[in-house]
């Protein structure tokens, strides 16, 4: 600025370079602070209004995140109820309900030790208490799964909020709906409860690392939540290395071992030994398990469970392109210095450990277990739900516009799920009409009805006491292994009949094995599930006449063994097996006339 010196000469006062730098920094901060800058004011009014609306939305989500979480959890729970109403119980759920409704805890333990189910007892015991109060309806036995998914979502949000703020933490509520993990939220199996327990354990582990007055309580909660997860499913043990890895990273930062936290993890790990009798029963469940590990097991599991992420990824790129086209840019997520540095590497290590769960389970399947089942290792996806928001916040440098684009993209599958589930709440429950038709035919049929597919048998006995009294399963480990590639149900059939779950006999001891009998199966053009009997009878030329048809199921008369023995040569390609008329009881013959 020109001024006059003491001699009246005009001069220019020069500021030091440091002072100029300070002014430039101050001006730059002023230009970029708040939710609107000088450039916004120069933009066309329409674009400015769009940006202001997006800015307001980002601010709303951040400032009212707690209310949004509470509302969303309620919506999720209602949606799960809707999906549950439209989904009949399937075979594994029937076994689960039968065990959970046994009279005493000792009976439940005995059934699990026999190998009727290959899971630890926690979910069965919780459901046992619920059914004693509310009855044994399908929704009641699925309540623990609904609660497990909600607990997982809440824990993910609380954990992520400690590191990346509320806007990016909301991703933890949306990401699971891009995977198949939420489908187990309305199924009476222990997976969803395991997810919830692990989510809680992750949050407790984070809080236990803080130097606060409640460290003892958080360590205790960590041990209990880990022990609860291990009491849900035996494949939960593959998550333990994740906690040991993360604790190792934390000890390097603190330059000491955190003995209370480490003791909680070790103590929880030791609880697996309590279930040794059940482990023995589960280990003998199948000598030819239906899902063998292979080189493609893990890639196939990831493709099946993460395939739905294609839609959020496409939507995210579209939103980013739209925002970039409109020139949308507003301030970064506010965060304190502690949020920037608060054990980021430690939580990343924990997430990485969860990502390794499918690999560890696959390696154990190759070496020891001789089996690999994709749904058993889905808790490894918790690593995805942790790492994606963490890494996105770092890559995007807490940019609100990119966070909003990612949240909107990942929220699309979540909104679709919520909409479909809520609509189903107001629909009538879905019942298997075919099973009702079979029940109507029961009085017209003489003798037992042998059910070929064991999964169908379990659905039938759960559907009607009359079907349970009439239907029987014949097991043979050699034939089952030959025709289905596994022999698991032959192992289950004996204990199941012993406990009164269903009627079952060995094929070799069945009195009518060599005479005519009725069996229930699917048409030739359709799979018979895990049933071996249809293929065995066809191979022995004993597949006889279709006696009755009930929807997609057939009741067929097996030919006597002597007649099959006379057919020494297989039929020519131009000759079809006789599946015409038959002579059974008058009631059955009348039923055939009606069907045909």
Features:
596 residues; alpha/beta; 3 domains; 8 strands; 6% strand; disordered N terminus; disordered C terminus
Q: Calculate the terminal CA-CA distance, rounded to whole Å.
A: 106 Å
Number of helices: 30
Average pLDDT confidence is 80
How many distinct folded domains?
3
Low-confidence residue ranges: 1-42, 563-596
Residue share in β-strands: 5-15%
- Helices and strands: which structural class? alpha/beta
From the spread of the alpha carbons, the general shape counts as: globular
Q: Spatial order of the strands in the main sheet?
A: 5-4-3-6-8-7
- Please provide the count of β strands: 8
Q: Could you describe the largest sheet, including whether it forms a barrel?
A: 6 strands, mixed
What is the CA-atom radius of gyration, in angstroms?
32 Å
Q: What percentage of residues falls in helices of 4 or more residues?
A: 55-70%
